[in-house]
Every structure is written in structure tokens, then in C-alpha cells.
């Protein structure tokens, strides 16, 4: 019997890459999706629950797996209300991590953000940092927070700020050396592959910066070749 993976945020850019990779990974026989809208994929491996993610705790009996992947995240343009924004980027990952504790799931892999800092004056960074702090305090045996820089890939919706950011990043990328490598844009597919590697291995850090996410993704690709 293969492993079971839970994916939160399967309809997003990175989450969709992750689901597709899980479908081709023979180690996993069941993929459980908790979403507000369908991912649109019909497959024998997939069990999809369309729910209110703000009420995730009500689905405790269904929340059982070997690993939980949390790809939840929003933006200021999509969610200008800070209260709702906090419920998405903080509330959902924390609720999922608590369910991992309650159901003895010992591997939780979550997308955070570069610059996450619970003491930051920037609301976005502070929200991510607070989420990281609470989740890590739960002491789930294998917890990893991925901290990507600007995430690139083909999105369905157009984001002007992100589009401009990508252009600027491409022009300035050659100058990002040393510690600045963490600020280079990163492909959503690389994040998904790194998450899969972390689902099978242990890593030296719990909070993993963008540069190292890319290195882990390359390692996963090499091992699967």
C-alpha cells in the first residue's frame, strides 16, 4: 500500500505542479485534496473534498495521511481585507498543523515566504513569520517551511505587480550573487519538487531559503532520473 498525501492549495500555481508530480510518483497511492474549488483532475488516486478551508478543524476524521503539503497563500490584491488575509496565510496552515498533531501525522511541509519575520513591520512578512513560529512550536517531527523569493510560472490570473517584478528580476538576476541568490525568482515547479524531496528525506534546516529550495529540487530530479 502506497503513502497518502494531503494537499492544501491544489488549485494554486505550486499546488497544481505538486499534484501532477504526486500522480506520477509510485510511492503515493492516494492524494487527498481539501479545497474551496475543484482542481479539475479526475484520477483514481485523487480524493477531493470541497470545503470551507476556514473550518478545516471540522474535517478532522478525514484529515489522515503520511504527509501534509500546505501550498496555501494569497496576495494583497486578491485579499485586501487584512482580517481575511490573516485567516488565509496564518489561520489555515496553523489549523492544518494542529490537525497533524491530533492525528499523529509526523511530516508537515509548508510554503511560507522569503522575509517571514514575526517581528516585521510589514504585515505580509509578519503574518508569515507568526505562522511559522506557531507551527514550529507544535514540534511536529518533520516540519519544513519553504521561504521562496518571487515565484514564477504560468498563472491563470494576471498580476501587474508580479509581472513588473519579474521583468525587473530578470534584468537584475545576474547581479544576485552570494547571499543575494536567495532573492532570485524561483519556478513554482522547483518548489513542488523540493517539497516532494522533503517528504522523503530530512534536511539540516526547518526554514529553507529560496536558494536552497532550488538546490533540493535539483537533487530530487537527479535522484528520480
UniProtKB/TrEMBL annotation:
Residues of the signal peptide: none
Gene3D superfamilies: NAD(P)-binding Rossmann-like Domain
Domain NAD(P)-binding: 9-126
Pfam family, one: NAD_binding_10
Record PANTHER family: OXIDOREDUCTASE HTATIP2
The protein, known as: NAD(P)H-binding protein
Taxonomic source organism: Formosa undariae
Amino acid at each position: 500500500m502506497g503513502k497518502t498525501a494531503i494537499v492544501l492549495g491544489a488549485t494554486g500555481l505550486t499546488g497544481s505542479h505538486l499534484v501532477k508530480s504526486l500522480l506520477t510518483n509510485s510511492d503515493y497511492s492516494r492524494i487527498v485534496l481539501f479545497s474551496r474549488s475543484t482542481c479539475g483532475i479526475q484520477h483514481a488516486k485523487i480524493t477531493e473534498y470541497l470545503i470551507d478551508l476556514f473550518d478545516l478543524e471540522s474535517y478532522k476524521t478525514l484529515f489522515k495521511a503520511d504527509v501534509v503539503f500546505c501550498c496555501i497563500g494569497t496576495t494583497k490584491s486578491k485579499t485586501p481585507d487584512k482580517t481575511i488575509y490573516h485567516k488565509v496565510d496564518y489561520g489555515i496552515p496553523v489549523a492544518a498543523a494542529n490537525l497533524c498533531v491530533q492525528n499523529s501525522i509526523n511530516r508537515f511541509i509548508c510554503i511560507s515566504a522569503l522575509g517571514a519575520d514575526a517581528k516585521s513591520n510589514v504585515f505580509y512578512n509578519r503574518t508569515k513569520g507568526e505562522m511559522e513560529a506557531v507551527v514550529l512550536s507544535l514540534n511536529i517531527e518533520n516540519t519544513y517551511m519553504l521561504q521562496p523569493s518571487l515565484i514564477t510560472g504560468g498563472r491563470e490570473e494576471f498580476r501587474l505587480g508580479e509581472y513588473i517584478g519579474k521583468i525587473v528580476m530578470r534584468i537584475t538576476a545576474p547581479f544576485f550573487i552570494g547571499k543575494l541568490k536567495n532573492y532570485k525568482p524561483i519556478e513554482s515547479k522547483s518548489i513542488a519538487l523540493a517539497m516532494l524531496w522533503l517528504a522523503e528525506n530530512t534536511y539540516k534546516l526547518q526554514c529553507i531559503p529560496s536558494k536552497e529550495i532550488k538546490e533540493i529540487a535539483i537533487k530530487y530530479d537527479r535522484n528520480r532520473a
